[in-house]
Amino acid sequence: xxxxxxxxxxxxxxxxxxxxxxxxxxxxxxxxxxxxxxxxxxxxxxxxxxxxxxxxxxxxxxxxxxxxxxxx
Length: 72
Ligand code: SF4
Hints:
Helix content: 40-55%
Number of helices: 2
Bound molecules: iron/sulfur cluster
Largest sheet: 3 strands, antiparallel
Radius of gyration: 14 Å
Structural class: alpha+beta
């Protein structure tokens, strides 16, 4: 059954290739189990995706960019 990805930074994923592509780049998992655990816990979880350290870094980057835009 395909996963419903929830993270707003998600772009695409391939379980056979054990890969997730999101705004931060491409994540290549060494095992299908690792891919499934990560995507279930973070990418396809709502709530849950906010706990991904990559999503947090992207959120912080967005907040910095917005703060910079307000200073102009
Ligand atoms: S949860 Fe993390 S790894 Fe998954 S799509 Fe979002 S930022 Fe990327």
